[in-house]
Amino acid sequence: MEQDNNNQKRKLEFVEKEKEILDFWEKNNIFEKVLEARKDAPLFTFYEGPPTANNRPGVHHVLARTYKDLFCRYKTMKGFFVDRKAGWDTHGLPVEISVEKNLNFKDKNDIESYGVDKFNNECKNSVFQYIKDWEKTTKDTGYWVNMDEAYKTYDTDYMESVWWILKQIYDKGLIYKGYKVLPFCPRCGTGLSSHEVAQGYKNVKDPSIYIKFELKDSSVFGVDKASVLVWTTTPWTLMANVALAINTNIKYYLFNVEGENIICHLDLTSVDFLKDKKVEKIQEIENNKLIGLKYIPLFEDKEVYEQGKKVYEIVEADYVSSSDGTGVVHIAPAFGIDDMELGNKENLGVILNVDEEGKLMDKENILEGARGLFFKEADKIIFDYLKDNDILLYGGMQDTEHEYPFCWRCKTPLIYRAKESWFIKMSELRNELLENNEKINWEPDYIKHGRFGEWLNDIKDWALSRNRYWATPLPIWICEKCGKKHAVGSLKELKEMGAGLNNTELPINSETGEVDLHRPYIDNFHIKCDCGGKMERTSEVIDCWFDSGAMPFAQSHFPFNYTDELDLKDLQYYLDKGFRFPADFISEGMDQTRGWFYTLLAISTLLGFGPSYKNVVTLGLILDSNGEKMSKSKGNVIFPEELIDRYGADSLRWYFVNISNAGDYKKFSENDLVIQQRRVINTFFNVFKFYETYVDKKYIDDQWILDNYTNLSVLDKWLVNKIEKSKNEFCNALDKYNAYNGTKVLDELIDSFSRWYLRRSRKTMQNDILSASVFAWGIKEIDKMFGIFCPFTADLIWREGGFDKNNISVHLELIKSLDINIDEDLLSQMDKIRDLSTQALKIRQEKGVKVRQPLNALIIKNSFDVDDGVLEILKDEINVKNVVFDNTVSDDLDLDVNLTEELVNEGKYRELTRLVQELRRESNYSPNDLVDLSIIVDNISGFWKLVEENIKNDIKINNFSFKAIDGFEIEKEIKDNNFDFKIQMKKI
């Protein structure tokens, strides 16, 4: 328990030190100095994925910010200029829904009544409700990013760039308005794009029912009456049914079930739900005899006949599967994408009987009890009707579990519903998207052709428009007179085309008096048509994901900051004028494969500029300790400030990167965090504390190592080579954007530095200037790599260790290699003897011989080439006088444990020096304090003569004697199997 308290105290000290370092960075403008130092270096471009600051940052935001920061730090320390501009995502449903909750609004009608101008103003004010929390978390986690000049998607300059992009896409003929079935949120009253839908799936239990559609004429099958069997999980769509679809490439059969004739592909003689009924397969039927047959509608809509199209008959569809359901699909074109496509192909009628609030309309074919109900709530009423009227063959209300789409923000079940909307023809760019994806390096690499590549292969047209308020308005105007459409791409164009139409020069916010392109100010701004008519803007706004994906351009007010020529040029034209594109690196969570990662690629591809990023690190979700996704609704979200207060930001940063590969799901565990903190951060810090306490502070540069290399000991040469090889492996991992492998290299290096090099040389370096210097250089070089992941502790070590001779912060340093050929043979030999040491120490333990007891020999069966200096390290490590190679022994490795009197005395001497040193520590004497030491024994001979001859060389002692000390400060009697004496000590 005491140990735990001490560890907790040390953790709190680390937190306090981080606060000191934060103050140091701020007071000395270290981030700004880093940028200034690299301003003329090669450019490394980083794009910040914009978060929304209308909620507190969670621990998952620290994960993303850690990865972003560490690669930017790494590239800076490799000699690049890395400009890090922050950004804020300020538009869209996330903000609107938050404001609606605060205002107790239920739907869009409340917004309209309140006033769009007032509502949008509330949205704007709410965007940065938690800005202080975000700024604090960003600062406290050591994420260096320019927040003072952050881009905001609601800024007029940003929106003007978005308009310019949209105009280029429109002028290419890639934006169109169409009547399509869209995923629609009844709560928010707007359609969603496919990449938004992909983020909101949940597992739900839905009805699973088998229902009978009776044919009007069954004589073609030689029976008086027959029904076609259909399986569905959406009973509410049956009231919009206009056709049944079959696939003529699969077989259909006529079955008799308890005297009732039923047609389907599913083998009804072998299904479990009919095992208690008499079922007989009568005959296989010819598929073409089914096509065109009419059936009796379950819920007849007489108005649909007025459309003059096919209705209530069987048609063919090649997508009908033989593996699911019955091989027959019921078709409701108003509520299914595939259904609508089939309806257009077969000229089917359309029944739209659900309104935009997701409620069943008051129409003749709607069951009376279902009218006005939310579409999901109507299922039970329809189910009961089917059952009561003998239309249901089998089924239940919660008989199937499957994924169903919900609104990614308000969590309302989505409905696929026919609606008019504006689209971008992404499907026409499928090949270009796939080609551009091939140019991107993905980490993990399986995302490239897996989750992301498959998404691109099946890409749908982008449902661009939203019937909402707080977003960038769609800049398309339509002539009231001739119907012509025109996309506006700049404020200049808007002003010129709006002149003379009783507009202000540009839309003005009535409260601020500033130009404002948002609704409602833009809604009443008209422009002139070539025909002389007045053009009015279409009422929709755009998907907020378009804003996010436009950030490579809009964050710098592209193209307006680079040229006065506003027609689209090739990419090189803008690069020559200083445009920074594409990003060398981006990073966000796995969910952004169908969010920001996609929209970035989509927009740059639409402009013909290729991919907008070269390297992307995709991060797995953070789960709680039970493996559940963290969410506010579950109450399992961990806020970062709590963890930082307890363990420090460095511990959290290191844990997130070191615990698993970037793309893996991460089950969060505070216990694992503490283990990682102790293993790496505490270990390296303790090495530094030894240096600070026992070794003169030095700043050793690379040239000193090169000049003195030949004079170094074998162990010191090994350390130099170990660090240089590890440095190469470390940089190789990070150059490949594999931070996890980089932590493994650093972890192993720190372990070797502490548990091998320092332990083997701690006595030597206190008296050997060369060894002490190598030790200092080793700390300095490891600290640079360490600072990539743990920037606070690294700078603490840098400053307090006296390494700030040239640069006041480690983050101003460069990671570079020594101009030496790495001695692989030396590294290999040392690996070999470390392995032998581990085995030999295990044998010692098994034989009950303490490590302090010297032994005569280590016996190795299989000889190998090893330098004498390396062999001496092996002998010293396992405390033997000799290493013997003998291929006649039975075991690969053994120890000679026969003890001579000389060996016994040497072991006793080592035990005695340990006791003395332990007593010094217990008395709080510093390592540099000189003491007078006395050992009082009955007989001064043999062993004690050995002590008298050697102890002053091994312990910091002013005077040693076997007589009592006047005025001693410490006295202790020692009695055990080896000793019976009294010790006295006094500091001088």
What average pLDDT do the residues reach?
91
Rg from alpha-carbon coordinates: 38 Å
Strand content: 15-25%
Biggest sheet layout: 6 strands, mixed
Helix content: 25-40%
Strand order of the largest sheet: 12-10-11-8-7-15
> In terms of per-residue confidence, which ranges show pLDDT below 50 for 5 or more consecutive residues?
1-10
Distance between the termini: 36 Å
Overall spatial form: elongated
Q: Compute the number of helices.
A: 31
Structural class: alpha/beta
Q: Compute the number of strand runs.
A: 35
Which descriptors would you attach to this protein?
988 residues, alpha/beta, six-stranded mixed beta sheet, four-stranded antiparallel beta sheet, 18% strand, disordered N terminus
Can you characterise this structure?
With 988 residues, the protein is an alpha/beta fold. Helices cover 39% and strands 18% of the residues. It has a six-stranded mixed sheet, with helices on one face. The chain has a four-stranded antiparallel sheet with strand order 6-5-16-18. Strands 21-20-23-22 form a four-stranded antiparallel sheet. The longest helix is centred in the C-terminal third of the chain and has 27 residues, at 739-765. It is elongated. The two termini are 36 Å apart.
